[in-house]
Specification:
The chain is an alpha/beta fold. The chain is built from 7 helices and 8 strands, in the order E-E-H-E-H-E-H-E-H-E-H-E-H-H-E. 42% of the residues lie in helices and 15% in strands. Helix 1 (29-40) links the parallel strand 2 and strand 3 (44-49). Bound molecules: NADP nicotinamide-adenine-dinucleotide phosphate.
Length: 253
């Protein structure tokens, strides 16, 4: 486990200059904040997600804050088939040639309830969206990541719920354990190839819609904003993390 104090890393303004980075769930929450920050640090950001209106809102904000450095990639991780991933990979290849970073951020919470009562349909939906689809997307984009001239960086998103046994976190906790295992296995396979690095970030309690759904009685003003944890994503996407592979970074102590 790698721990840093909040905001201990300050990224140079041109950290990601000339890079192309795809992020899922870019229309809201942490994904939106990270997408804007990536663009502000020089990258062209590919905004992937299922809600076009939200993605367009992020796109407009990127344009206002960072200039013309974004493209929208419609992608519903729950329903995407192999052919959709191939199509996305082909579009990125035609427009950009290679990919320098991938942030697997999108996820769903499911229901917080006892496992004894957890519905099988919801179980499959959460495991598929949060774990299987992350594998399918990453596998499909791997040839473009391997072609990066910068040494590409892949980030998965984990959670405290995936680190220890916690009651009533259901399929979400299991999906995050799966993502951690996926990250570690893939990182080990890449270790000696030296082409790219694969790590995970645990954002910690962050003021978003998912957090509000998980803790409806909590006062959100007591939580840090998504903008305050973007440093961890910048760190793993830029050259300052070259050589870091197979690690989980906790964005909050
Ligand atoms: N917030 C926290 O305290 C916290 C703590 C630990 C870990 N995390 C993790 O951090 C990541 C971001 O969470 P967040 O708090 O920002 O949650 P959020 O506000 O709910 O955002 C999740 C994003 O994922 C997208 N998404 C959901 N299902 C999708 C699908 N089938 N296809 C494509 N996109 C989909 C959502 O799109 P829609 O707008 O269409 O729903 C949304 O943009 C997640 O992996 C979460 O598990 C969050």
């Amino acid at each position: 486990m790698t721990k840093f104090p909040i905001s201990s890393y300050t990224a140079p303004s041109d950290l990601l200059s000339g890079r192309v980075i795809l992020i899922t769930g870019a229309g809201s929450g942490i994904g939106r904040a990270v997408a804007i920050s990536i663009a502000q640090h020089g990258a062209t950001v590919l905004l992937a997600g299922r809600n076009i209106n939200s993605l367009e809102s992020t796109y407009d904000k990127v344009l206002r804050k960072a200039g013309p450095r974004a493209a929208i990639c419609p992608l519903d991780l729950e329903y995407a088939k192999d052919s959709d991933y191939v199509e996305l990979k082909n579009q990125v290849e035609v427009q950009f040639g290679a990919l320098d970073g991938l942030v697997n951020n999108a996820a769903i919470l499911g229901d917080r309830m006892p496992l004894n009562q957890y519905k099988s349909e919801l179980w499959e939906k959460v495991i598929h969206t949060n774990a299987t689809a992350q594998f399918l997307l990453t596998r499909s984009l791997m040839p473009l990541l391997e072609q990066s001239s910068h040494g590409a960086s892949v980030i998965f998103t984990t959670s405290g719920a995936g680190q220890a046994g916690r009651a009533f976190w259901g399929a979400y906790a299991v999906s995050k354990c799966a993502v951690e295992a996926l990250m570690r296995g893939w990182a080990a396979e890449q270790e000696n190839l030296g082409k790219l690095r694969i790590n995970a970030i645990n954002p910690g309690p962050t003021r978003t819609a998912m957090r509000s759904k998980a803790y409806p009685a909590e006062n959100p003003t007591n939580l840090i904003s998504a903008d305050q944890i973007t440093w961890a994503y910048l760190y793993l996407l830029g050259d300052d993390s070259l050589g870091i592979n197979g690690k989980t970074i906790h964005a909050q102590l």
